[in-house]
Write a structure and sequence with these properties.
globular; single chain; 10 strands; 157 residues; seven-stranded antiparallel sheet
């Protein structure tokens, strides 16, 4: 099994656990309790992302100082979540809205204390209709995005 296939399997297992749950503070808390920084699931996903970047199938595009890429489109095997990963260091990305919400996994790299939108390593859940300018500060981080139905709308704000 390729490392990309193994990554897909990890994500399918995770999305099965969150399928049908509201994207809200309760999900944020549950993800950080069950699969937060230091947990086996977190470490497996972090390792898979680092491997994917090294092998070139993650974050294969670059623009504005951000390496990024959609690794999987929304599909039934992933419970209708798309999967994107970005590699950012001390910068803000483009403003966008989340029509159906967004689930982020924050993975600091190189033992940095990097934060994403002020949040440390772990999960961050944005509900439907929210918007932000994704910002990594205090170092470098990989951020995995799960988007219901792959929905994201970039804005000019």
């Amino acid at each position: 099994m390729s490392s990309k296939d193994a990554f897909h399997t990890l994500l399918a297992d995770l999305t099965a656990q969150i399928d049908g749950r509201p994207l809200d503070a309760a999900l944020d808390q549950w993800l950080n309790t069950a699969h937060g920084a230091g947990s086996p699931a977190y470490e497996q996903l972090r390792s898979a992302c680092i491997t994917g970047v090294a092998e070139g199938w993650l974050c294969e595009r670059e623009g504005g100082g951000i390496k990024y890429g959609r690794v999987f489109k929304a599909e039934d095997a992933l419970h209708r979540f798309s999967v994107d990963v970005v590699d950012m260091q001390d910068l803000a990305g483009p403003h966008h809205t989340h029509p159906n919400g967004e689930i982020d996994l924050i993975m600091p790299i190189d033992d940095s204390a990097a934060t994403f939108d002020g949040r440390p390593a772990g999960w961050c859940v944005y509900g439907p209709g929210t918007a932000h300018r994704p910002t990594v500060a205090q170092g470098r981080a990989l951020v995995l995005y799960l988007l219901p139905e792959g929905q994201i709308q970039f804005t000019r704000t």
